[in-house]
Every structure is written in C-alpha cells, then in structure tokens.
Design goal:
By secondary structure, this protein is an alpha/beta fold. It contains seven helices and ten strands.
C-alpha cells in the first residue's frame, strides 16, 4: 500500500472522521464503522485533505481535466481544497464548481452553480466524501449536463465502503460507474483500512482489535459486494 494511503487512514482516525463501534446508517444497516467527512474542520485538516484528494486524482485519472466539481453540500469544500491541492502538488490550475441546493435568482452569480461556470467541452472530475447509494450523483449529474456539454472524466471519493448498493449485487461505486459510464475511484478502500489498522496503534490505542475486526468481517459477510 502506498505511503500516502497509510497516512490518510491514520489521518481519518486522528481527525475522528472514521470511527468504530455500533452505528445505524441512513439505510437502516447496523454498521461497526462510520465515516463523517464533516468532522474535518480545521485549516490544517482541510489543507491535508485537499492534498490527499489531489494525489488520488493524479494517480487514478491523471491531470488532463479542467474542473473539480463537488456536489452540495459536503462536496463544496472538497472541490475547493482539492483545487488548491492540485495547484500545490502539481502546479495544476483547475477551476472549482459546485451546485446549489436552492437556485439563486438574483445578483451577478444567479443560477444553480457556485464557483466557475461550466463550458461546453469542459473535462470534469467529481469529488465526494463517500458513495453509499449514488443518490447525490443521480441528483447532480443532470445539473452538470444541463449546465453545459461537459465530459465527466471520473469520480473520486475518500473511502470505498465496499458494500452492496441499491441493486444489492455490486457496490454503490460500481453502480454509479455502470450507470453513467465514467470511472469511480477512492483514496482508500475499507479493505485497505481494515488491513492497515488491525492491531495497530494510532495515537496510543488500537482502533481495530480482534473483536472489531470480527464485527467488520461479519458486516461484510452480510452486506459486502460479491
């Protein structure tokens, strides 16, 4: 596993973004782990997050694109810090864009987009925290295509939960990829997280001990994609 992935896994734990215990997800599933990207709140955390996204985009999709698009709401800061990270690491000048949940009907920036306008022919990379159902993509992809004739080059998320999506067969990431025809990648997968953290101390404590590892294995036996 690449060094930056190991660092990112520890970063999620240290930032209290990735937690282990007993959680009930929106889907109703009982999960032994939970991720909340809204817990990245400090300047240092956001700066580092943008660098990790930039590195993963570079490694998975290259740098041949024009716009970083983040679906509202959590995707808004992600698109901003990722654009900054791309410039810092690679000198890549990418525009950021996000959608509004409510269309603004006044002012110079009226409309349903924040940041850059979208232009015909723009090549777009989408950024999200995690894809569990594909719902946000279903909502924002029509917004993208309605704004201009853009070419979505890929979607990057921070964590691939690796569990079945709405169809109950393949992961939500695979469902999005098959439905829309663009590749979907992640900074890390839950398999990588589990392998790296199992019986490893982070900030003086083991976050995935044998008991937690067994609970994760049981969860994937029930909800993991085949």
């Amino acid at each position: 596993m690449e060094q930056y992935k190991q660092e990112f896994i520890e970063f999620m734990v240290e930032s209290q973004v990735l937690k282990f215990g007993d959680f009930t997800l929106k889907s109703g599933r009982k999960s032994p782990f939970f991720m909340n990207a809204g817990a990245y709140v400090t300047g240092d955390q956001l700066h580092r997050l943008g660098l990790y996204y930039a590195r993963a985009i570079h490694d998975n999709f290259g740098l041949d694109f024009d716009v970083v698009f983040g679906p509202a709401y959590k995707g808004i800061p992600l698109s901003v810090v990722t654009a900054i990270g791309l410039h810092e690491l690679y000198g890549k000048e990418a525009r950021y864009c996000s959608n509004r949940k409510e269309v603004k009907d006044h002012g110079a920036d009226a409309g349903n987009l924040l940041g850059s306008d979208l232009r015909d022919g723009d090549r777009v990379i989408m950024v999200e925290d995690v894809t569990t159902s594909g719902k946000s993509i279903d909502e924002t992809y029509p917004v993208l295509k309605g704004a201009a004739d853009v070419d979505v080059k890929g979607l990057i998320v921070s964590l691939n939960r690796m569990e079945v999506g709405k169809g109950g067969v393949v992961t939500a990431q695979q469902e999005v990829q098959e439905k829309y025809g663009f590749p979907v990648a992640s900074i890390v997968s839950m398999a990588e997280v589990t392998e790296y953290l199992h019986n490893r101390e982070v900030q003086g404590r083991v976050v995935i001990d044998d008991e937690t590892k067994a609970a994760i294995d049981q969860y994937y036996a029930q909800y993991g994609a085949k």
